[in-house]
Structure formats: C-alpha cells, structure tokens
C-alpha cells in the first residue's frame, strides 16, 4: 500500500481533525451571520435552532409596492449551495413575476443559480422585484400584460390587491402595513 | 502466507499481473518492494469498498475482482430496473426488482473463484466511521452529488493526526453521457471533492416563466407538471419520482399541456428522465472511467506505479479528448480547508471571554466571530433575531455548551471561510 502518510508532514494545521459540522451548515452560518440587509428586509426564524427554514419580510420603501409587507419562505436543503434555496411568496399577491401559488420568477433561484451566490444575493434579488417588476418574464401573465400596456391601470390594481381586493374574480391577500 | 497461491488459485492465474508486481519499473514508487509481500497484501489483506453497484459499479467490481482484489465490499441502495440491463452486466432479467448490491456480489463470487464480496443494501449514510475505518481504499461510482459530498466529508473528517491508518484514499469516478472523470482524493493531502464543487455543471433548469407561459419543448411541459402543477394540486405532498403512479400523473398532465401548445415528444420515459434528471448512460464511457478508477486502486494498493495526480477528465462528445491535471486544494474549502486550532481554556471561562480571546489573537485577525457546535448555535452576530436568541449564551460557561475535545465552528466576514476550534479545558 502506498505510503501516503509521509506526504502529510509539515502540514500541522491541516492535519487537525475537522468538525462534523456539514459543509452546508457552515455555509448557511456564514451566509446568515454576514447578511447585510437594509431596514426594508427582516428575517424571522420560527425555530431559532433551525437555520434551514425561515422567512424574509420585505417592506419596500419606494416603488409601486410601497406600503406593503411581503413575506417569503426560505427552505434550504442539505445540498446547499450546490442547489439554490427554495423560496416562495407566502401571501397571494398581484405581481407579474409571482404566480398565485407563490412561485417566484427570479433567474438566480433557478437557471442562473451558482454556488458563489449567497442568501444575501437572493434577498436583494427579491427586493428588486418590488422596485422593478419585470413584464418580460411573466408568471402572472395578466399582470405582466397590464404593466406593459396600461401602467396606470396596473398601479391601481396593485394598490387594490394590496388591500385585499379582487382583480378579475381573484381575491388577493391584504398585505398593507 | 505466500501471495502466489491460495487454495482457490491455479497455476498462472496471476501471470500477467505478476509481471508488474515481481519487478520494479522505471516509474515505480520508491517504497515499492517487488515480490511476495505486495502480492500477499493485495490478495489476502487489502480490503476495498466499492460505493455504487450501477453502471460504473458493475464495471468496477468486475475489474477489481479480476485484478486480484479478494476482499471487496459493496454498498448500493437501489434495486434493479429493466432499463439497467443493457450495461449493468452483472444483472439478468430474472433479477429485476432485487437489490443491486446483493445480486452483484453473488454474481462476482460465482464467476471469480476465491473473491469474497460483502454486499450492503442501503444508504452510505447508514454506516458510521468505524465501518469506513476497516477499509484500505474506497472507490466510488455514484450518480449523485449529495452522496459524493457526504462520503468525501466523512473520509476527510476521519483523518486523525495520531493515526496513519485513518487516511483512506478515495477514488471517484463519474460519467454523464459521453463525458466522464476519474480522480484520486487523498483526504487532507490533495484537493477534495468539495474543493471542486464550483466546477460542476449546474443541473439543467428552465426559467420558470418559460415553463409557465411559453413552452416550446416537451421538457417544458413536464417541468410545468412537476414544478407548478404538482404542488398546486397536491400541496405539501412530496413527489416520489420512483412511484409509477406519480410519474403517470405527471405524464398525463404534461401530455395535455403539450397538446394544447402543439408540442410533440412527451413520453413516459422522457417524463421519468426529466423529473429524475436522468442523463443517458453510455456503456463504453462507464467502461473507460471504471477502468481508470481500478488502475488507480491497483497502483495505490501496490505502489507499483505512479498514481493519478489527481484529476482525469474524458470528453467523448467530439472525438476522444482527455486531459489530466492537478486540481489544487482550496484554502477556503468548507470540508478540507479553513484553519484549525487547538485551544486550551479554563473551565470557568464564559463564551464572552472566549470571543474576546479570539478577537485579541493577533495571528488570526478575526472581527465579530459567530460560533456554533455541530448541533447548536453558541453565539451569532446576525441576523438580529438570532443574535438576541443566542445572547444569553455569552454569560454561560463554554464548558456547559461544549464537551472536552469538542469542536466549535467559527465564521466571520474577515475569515475566508471558517475556523474550527478544538476545545480542551485546564
């Protein structure tokens, strides 16, 4: 058998036994404790001992969605950061990039996810959706069409949906602050 | 015992292999001593573990048995599917539904006299360090990133500075269609699997808005069924990609969607392929990669020739291209990198005192450290809620939270990745 041990000499620091904390766990600890969030975003951990399941509250201070409180659920699996976190919008909202089931169309949550991205990038990306809703990547097609064709009407519908109003027979959740 | 013969060997059984083991060549390792001792080790003492008994695993088991390894263990959690039979040549039609590990072990033992194959039908995660400690070498033929990350981290964690036997070489093979790779990982010595995680191709994912609005491919319709329709209809019920009823439901939903958008090509097997992320397996790619893995296993077990340092990739999509290079260790690798420190503190030290000491330590330059043990948080600087929740721990004694010899993981924005502390008390 090859003598591998001899190759280890002069590597004292690296030779120390490593902890059994999983790579995903360390990475989540690093991501969370280095979050640099503006006052418009807050995390909440239903069980503070469970770092893998939590919510993010976004309260935009400008743009069309100002005045609302939007909660997203985050679920991180043990294969993080190879796989992106699973993120859903909790309330039913009227938004071109969020469907009625809470699925969110944000490229870095799916096709453009890379392990070098982190939770901070995802959170900033989510906030951006409220500042600049994107009609070109629609998940709620009607909302996207309306944003493109009749911005004033769209704005009116956003405001009424945020108060829990109906749009085309669909009732939205009240998210007013 | 003499390496040349055991009761089940016959004259000339190892004639060709012995050409390599009976004399040193120009590239043999300095430590190589030709002759009976090395043959005896290979044939009577060396214990090797094969993880995975699928496309690569069948090839690996056959190659190892035929090279003279006689104590082989194999782990696989799967059962045999009819679609495996074109390339997983240790299985026959009558074996469909049976555990791969058991059937493969039995086949090898029947076919190659004197070889003992010990199967385990289950998950690698069922086994602990004591189990992995019994082997000299581990060869992986896996199809999942998650399982590779697990075995890699386990073998790296097992390395004990006091015990040379705790360092187990890991040979990892992998294939995807016409592409493959084989690599030698010497835990804590060479780059580990986690070091190269960012080199992986990301799994194909379509933009969710394309799936929702403008499907053009049959795959878009299948993803629509599995990503959007399944959770909408079934809520939290988990999709089981091994359950034919679940696949059947997805197939029906995807077919209707395809019809609506005039898209052709949604089939039952494509549905299964997309949701299970199946990449067509090519028998010859498996054969090449498995051969390379077994060459390395043989060379490392016998030190009869220079081993792979440390990454071999094969691209067979356009002609035959291969490239070998040394993947370097990543200093900030969460598994094998980072800094590690033994520190000795007084039993009555509080967490706050420990943090002060870390901040004052000149050689590590740490600001605002967050601390945890493998099972719980000790103190987090952020986010605010967790800071508040862990703040009471600052006044507790470290010895109430961490046992003698226990580990603390420290992260901080000033550290490239993490620092691990091993705590002893005075």
Automatic annotation (TrEMBL), chain A:
One of its GO terms (molecular function) is ATP binding. It is an enzyme of class 2 (transferase). The active site is at residue 105. Pathway: Protein modification; protein neddylation. The keyword Repeat does not apply. Its EC number is 2.3.2.34. Residues 1-25 are annotated as: Disordered. It catalyses: [E1 NEDD8-activating enzyme]-S-[NEDD8 protein]-yl-L-cysteine + [E2 NEDD8-conjugating enzyme]-L-cysteine = [E1 NEDD8-activating enzyme]-L-cysteine + [E2 NEDD8-conjugating enzyme]-S-[NEDD8-protein]-yl-L-cysteine. The keyword Transferase applies. Residues 23-167 form the UBC core domain. Keywords: ATP-binding, Nucleotide-binding, Transferase, Ubl conjugation pathway. Belongs to the ubiquitin-conjugating enzyme family. This is NEDD8-conjugating enzyme UBC12.
UniProtKB/TrEMBL annotation, chain B:
The keyword Methyltransferase does not apply. GO terms for cellular component: cytoplasm; nucleus. It is an enzyme of class 6 (ligase). Residues 343-426 form the E2 binding domain. Its EC number is 6.2.1.64. Pathway: Protein modification; protein neddylation. One of its GO terms (molecular function) is ATP binding. The keyword Ligase applies. It catalyses: ATP + [NEDD8 protein] + [E1 NEDD8-activating enzyme]-L-cysteine = AMP + diphosphate + [E1 NEDD8-activating enzyme]-S-[NEDD8 protein]-yl-L-cysteine. GO terms for biological process: protein neddylation. Keywords: ATP-binding, Ligase, Nucleotide-binding, Ubl conjugation pathway. PANTHER family: NEDD8-ACTIVATING ENZYME E1 CATALYTIC SUBUNIT, UBIQUITIN-ACTIVATING ENZYME E1. Belongs to the ubiquitin-activating E1 family. UBA3 subfamily. Catalytic subunit of the dimeric E1 enzyme, which activates NEDD8. This is NEDD8-activating enzyme E1 catalytic subunit. It comes from Cristinia sonorae. The lineage of its organism: Eukaryota, Fungi, Dikarya, Basidiomycota, Agaricomycotina.
């Amino acid at each position: 058998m090859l003598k591998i041990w001899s190759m280890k000499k002069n590597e004292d620091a690296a030779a120390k036994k490593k902890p059994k904390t999983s790579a995903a766990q360390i990475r989540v600890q690093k991501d969370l404790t280095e979050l640099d969030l503006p006052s418009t975003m807050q995390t909440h951990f239903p069980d503070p001992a469970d770092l893998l399941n939590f919510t993010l509250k976004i309260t935009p201070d400008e743009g069309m969605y100002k005045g609302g409180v939007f909660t997203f659920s985050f679920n991180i699996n043990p294969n993080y950061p190879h796989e992106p976190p699973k993120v859903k919008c909790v309330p039913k909202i009227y938004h071109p990039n969020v469907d009625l089931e809470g699925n969110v169309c944000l490229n870095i949550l799916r096709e453009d996810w890379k392990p070098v991205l982190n939770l901070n990038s995802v959170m900033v990306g989510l906030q951006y959706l409220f500042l600049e809703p994107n009609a070109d990547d629609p998940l709620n097609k009607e909302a996207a069409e309306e944003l493109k064709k009749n911005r004033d009407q769209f704005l009116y519908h956003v405001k009424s949906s945020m108060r829990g109003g109906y749009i085309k027979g669909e009732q939205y959740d009240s998210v007013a602050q | 015992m003499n390496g040349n013969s055991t009761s089940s060997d016959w004259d000339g059984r190892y004639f060709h292999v012995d050409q390599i083991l009976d004399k040193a060549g120009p590239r043999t390792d300095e430590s190589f001593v030709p002759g009976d001792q090395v043959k005896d080790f290979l044939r009577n003492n060396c214990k090797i573990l094969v993880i995975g008994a699928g496309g690569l695993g069948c090839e690996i088991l056959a190659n190892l048995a035929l090279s003279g390894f006689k104590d082989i263990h194999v782990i696989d959690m799967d059962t045999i599917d009819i679609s495996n039979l074109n390339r997983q040549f240790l299985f026959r039609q009558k074996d469909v539904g049976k555990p791969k590990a058991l059937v493969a072990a039995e086949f090898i033992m029947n076919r190659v006299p004197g070889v003992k194959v010990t199967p385990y039908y289950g998950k690698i995660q069922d086994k602990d360090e004591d189990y992995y400690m019994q082997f000299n070498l581990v060869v992986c033929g896996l199809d999942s990133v998650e399982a590779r990350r697990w075995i890699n981290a386990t073998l790296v964690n097992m390395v004990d500075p006091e015990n040379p036997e705790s360092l187990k070489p890991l040979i990892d093979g992998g294939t995807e269609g016409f592409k493959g790779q084989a690599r030698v990982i010497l835990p804590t010595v060479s780059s580990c699997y986690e070091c190269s995680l960012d080199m992986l191709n990301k799994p194909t994912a379509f933009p969710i808005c394309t799936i929702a609005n403008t499907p053009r491919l049959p795959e878009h319709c299948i993803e629509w069924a599995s990503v959007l329709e399944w959770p909408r209809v079934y809520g939290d019920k988990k999709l089981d990609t091994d359950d034919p009823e679940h696949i059947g439901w997805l197939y029906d939903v995807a077919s209707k969607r395809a019809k609506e958008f005039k898209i052709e090509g949604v089939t039952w097997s494509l549905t299964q392929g997309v949701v299970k992320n199946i990449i067509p397996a090519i028998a010859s790619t498996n054969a090449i990669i498995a051969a390379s893995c077994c060459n390395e296993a043989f060379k490392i077990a016998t030190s009869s020739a220079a081993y792979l340092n440390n990454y071999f990739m094969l691209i067979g999509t356009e002609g035959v291209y291969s490239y070998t290079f040394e993947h370097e260790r990543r200093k900030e690798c969460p598994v094998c990198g980072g800094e590690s420190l033994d520190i000795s503190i007084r039993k009555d030290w509080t967490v706050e005192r420990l943090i002060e000491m870390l901040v004052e330590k000149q050689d590590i330059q740490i600001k605002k450290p967050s601390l945890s043990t493998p099972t719980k948080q000790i103190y987090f600087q952020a986010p605010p809620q967790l800071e508040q929740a862990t703040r009471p721990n600052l006044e507790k004694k470290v010895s109430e939270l961490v046992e003698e010899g226990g580990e603390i993981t420290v992260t901080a924005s000033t550290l490239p990745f993490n620092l691990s502390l091993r705590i002893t008390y005075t």
